Structures are given as structure tokens and as C-alpha cells.
Amino acid sequence: MNAQLGRAAIAVAASALAAVSLTACGSGDDADGRPGGSTKGDDIKVGLLLPEDQTSRYEKFDKPLIEKEVAMLTRGKGKVLYANAKQDATAQSAQVDAMIAKKVDVLIIDAVDSKAIAGAVKKAKDAGIPVVAYDRLAEGPIDAYTSFDNEDVGTVQGKALLEALGDKARDGQIVMMNGSVIDPNAKDFKAGAHAVLDGKVNVGKEYDTVDWKPENAHANMAAAISALGKGKIVGVYSANDGMAGGIITALKAAGVSPLPPVTGQDAELAGVQRIVAGEQFMTVYKRYAPEAAAASEMAVALARGERIDGIINQLVDSPTTKRVPSMLVPGVALTKSNVKTTVVDDGVYTIAEICTDRLKSACEEIGLK
Questions:
Q1: Is the pLDDT reported for residue 220 higher than 50?
Q2: What is the pTM of this model?
Q3: How far is CA 85 from the centre of its chain?
């Protein structure tokens, strides 16, 4: 993936709204979307706060993509100041304070806890620093938001699971392993999945997984197997790949064979390898380049006091802020059939990275050579 791909995706999405006039400001400030309408050139400081390092995407993709895009947009003069909260909402609020003290010109925040971050967002706003909510819809007076269409992600997962189950959908029970309750995206994934699955499958057990941790998903799955019986589980809805790994380990430990179809999200390397091996049915591949490019373009524009109409593709309401200018990116169902045309062709992983010695024969069967 690269910045050019991201900008192209944004341009396509934005063109759909070419006939619609949208304001750049999400919370009633100056029409240019920047409190006070101040302007800056390329010499800007962008604060980037990411939520955790349990999921590989943040350090491997989001951070370097945003750094690269900001550098490109500012002709190498802009700086990205980075901090990772490691799943600690209190630490993230302190990181916002630190960014304010460092006088950043704009903040990109992927919130650990969307509600808890609201006070810190207001502090930044009061200090004249616009805030772009990244990947998760933070509460408070945010100026812009970019993420994936999260309910659609759940819909994609649910449809894929139904496809995998076929006429066996009613033969047993499925387990639903949702994400963390403090992540607003998890609620959307769950809603999208339920919209597809309700009435078509029997949900035997459903869990909200603390901190999205694989070990917590493993414990939940072990409990579900004990409660339902290993022969009664026909499928597992897993909201992301990390949890899918814990779920599959629990299924194997219980002697479940063959493994039921298990969903995922994020196209992590381990998840893609499990798909190739036939252990995980699918993942939702989210092209991080368009999301990172949108956040970077929004941030740089807001820091300069410029409008962001041409970047957004819709307006989104948070619990505290209405009509937030937003750019939402669709996800793609990744299965054995399209590994090459997604993560390989986009340059996320090489065939050599995916096809370890253990997976060479499986890779050859699906044309990964």
C-alpha cells in the first residue's frame, strides 16, 4: 500500500459528494474548520495518539502511513509527535495534556475509551488545537473523523459466516465473540453482524471481550465449549483476528475437529496464514492507506486553517457532537480465494511472508507461488 493508493481512494469517495456543499467545521467554529481561523504553512506539528499495541496494525501500518503522508503533504517540513496508550485510557488523557504542552497544531486521536477521552478533547479544543478522531469516534468537540464503515464491517463478517455455514446454519449453535465494550467500533461491528445473523442462526453464547485480548477470547471460548458441548458449535463470529487466534487455540485444545468457520478482521499476517491453512474462514481486510491518508489530509488542512470539504464523504453524529465531517472507508471480505488480489497485490505482505515452509503446499493449492 502507498499514499498514492490512499489519495486515489479518497478522491473517488469525495467525488460522490461533489454536488453537495458541506462545511468543514464539526462544532460551530469558524467556517474554515479551525478555531480562530489561524493559518500555518508546512512547518506544523501533528500529534498522533494511538490506543494500543496488542493489534499489530497500529505500529506496522497506521503510524508509518500517517508519518509518510504528513511528510508528503508538508514537503518534509511537518513533524509527527507520537505516543501509544497501550490500552490505558488515563495514560492517553495524559498524553493529550503532553501534546498540548508541546503546542502541536493538530491532534489525531484513536481513543482507548471514546467516552473517557471527551474531557481531554475539550482541553485541546480550548487550547485552539483541532482534533481528528481516527478509527474510533471519540466523544467531545472533535473537528473531523475518519474510520471504516463499522456496521458494514459487521455485515461483511455476518454474511461471510452465513456463506460458510450454508444449509448447516440451523444445525447447531454459533458463538459470538464481540470486542471491547469501551470501543464504540465494537458496538457497530456487533450491530452489523446481528442485522445479518439474527433469525438465521442460533446464538448459543455471546461475549464482549475485555480489551480485545486474545487470551480473554480464549477463556470465553473455552467456557462456551464447556457450556454448549464441542459437537454443538457450528460457527464462531469473531470480531477481529487477534481474538480469532485465541478462539481457534481453544477449539483445538478441546479437540474440536473439523474446526468450525471462524471470522476475523484486520487481515493480520497470522490471520491470513490461518486462512491459508484452513483454520480461519475469513477476515475483513481494511485498506489502511485510505484511512491514514484521510486523517493526514484532514489534520494538515485543519492545522493550516483550510477547509476539508473535498476529503469527506459524509457527516456522522457522535453522542456529543452532531454532523462531524467524516471519511468512511469500506472493508473487503478476504478468504482463501482473494489473498493475492488483496493483501499481496496491495503490498501489505509478500508471498514469502505468508507462505512459510509449513504453509507452502497450502499456498500452492490456492495459487500463491
A1: yes
A2: 0.74
A3: 16
